[in-house]
Amino acid sequence: MKAENILIIEDEALQRETLAEALRGECSQVRTAATAEDGLAHVAGERVDVVITDFKLPDHDGLHVLQEVKRINPEIAVIVITAYGSIDRAVSVMKAGAFDYLTKPVNIEELVMVLERACAHQALVSENARLRRDLGEKFSMDGVIARSRSMEEALNLAGRVAPSDASVLLQGESGTGKEVLARVVHAASRRKDGPFVAFNAAALPPTLVESELFGHEKGAFTGADYRKEGKFELAHKGTLLLDEVTEMSLPLQAKLLRVLQEHEIDKVGGRESIPVDVRVIATSNRDIKKRIRENLFREDLYYRLNVIPLKISPLRERKEDIPLLAEHFLQKHRRENNKPVMSIDESTVSLLKKYNWPGNIRELANIMERAAILCTEDTLLPAHLFFEDDAEMDGDGSSKPLSNFRGTIHQMEKELILQTLEEQNGNKTRAAESLGISIRTLRNKLTEYQSSG
Length: 453
Prior knowledge:
Elements: E1 3-9, H1 13-23, E2 27-33, H2 36-45, E3 50-54, H3 62-72, E4 77-82, H4 87-95, E5 100-103, H5 108-138, H6 149-161, E6 168-171, H7 178-187, E7 196-200, H8 206-214, H9 231-234, E8 238-243, H10 250-262, E9 264-265, E10 274-275, E11 278-284, H11 288-293, H12 299-305, E12 308-311, H13 322-336, E13 343-344, H14 346-354, H15 360-374, E14 379-380, H16 409-423, H17 428-435, H18 439-452
Parallel strand pairs: 1-2, 1-3, 3-4, 4-5, 6-11, 6-12, 7-8, 8-11, 13-14
Antiparallel strand pairs: 9-10
Helix pairs in contact: 2-3, 10-12, 13-15, 16-17, 17-18
């Protein structure tokens, strides 16, 4: 990632020009300053994305520069250059919020690598800011699509606990919308202007989870070529979502418990604890009490996380939400794919409500996206829905003509087409019109049924 606007503050002319020349190919614009005051004037009056400053300057030290830069614009990344072996200085600037530090003589390749990470960090900060601007509208209580009593109760509780800093434990099956509800809590909290950082404990090997959560110091282990900020540091003054927290190993659970109790982290390879101000929202799709009985989850951590319990019912238990969600996803994907306005036929809604939705809202979104792409009509009919061939129906609805049908979606589709064709006295054109599909699709389906017997 190419850097944008870089400022180098260095009083030694040769070193200043050497660094500037080395970085001009890596950056859109490189400015230089020989004193702290000149450099801070640049920061105050111009756009600066990254500041590279020597610690020892004629008028102020690098710590002063760092503090002033952060006062002017907290989002600017600051890289501090220190004299070789000045570990105490390095620790002081890192605690004060420096992105990273380098020791003299500066290795240009290492500087470029640190700069690339700083720019990636800046891109993340900018994206986070954009998301925060959208968050209030997208994830407000009123913005959640739900009609069921269970979701209304969950949203009501979420609204009551959001202003606090209490830990929240969200439980529910995969795909029920736990992360959406976590974002709702964040958006309604006093931390809404801070970062929202999501971390899935099940997505990484156990050996990497500690470094991702708590960060590591340069040289902490083989391959640790730079200092890494962990998710807790990135979420400082905001909210950290620990997705599938029950998948964490027991040793990591113990370290997480300490962070929740002491509000400080220990980086891998670090010498001192770092204070953090983070609200934790954890999720799980497991039976946590069972995990505790099996000695796979710490009971003390459970009680620390479960200050506010929020449970989300599976979609099959709140079917009154299905029509609203289906309409939302259909129109969303219709717009994304430049398709004309579509409506959902009542028979389609009935079919959607009869399905058990093992994948919950995530599966519904997938099926409606597929329907929006493949449907060529202005009305979405049952024949436009494509489920898994082994999908099972409840069979308790009253939709026509398949009110008492129980079987797979593939079988239901076949039965619907054959019954419609019979109702139209074998007229394929009228049957296709009634089904909302093209005559070619109908013929292909009939050929498929004939070949399969």
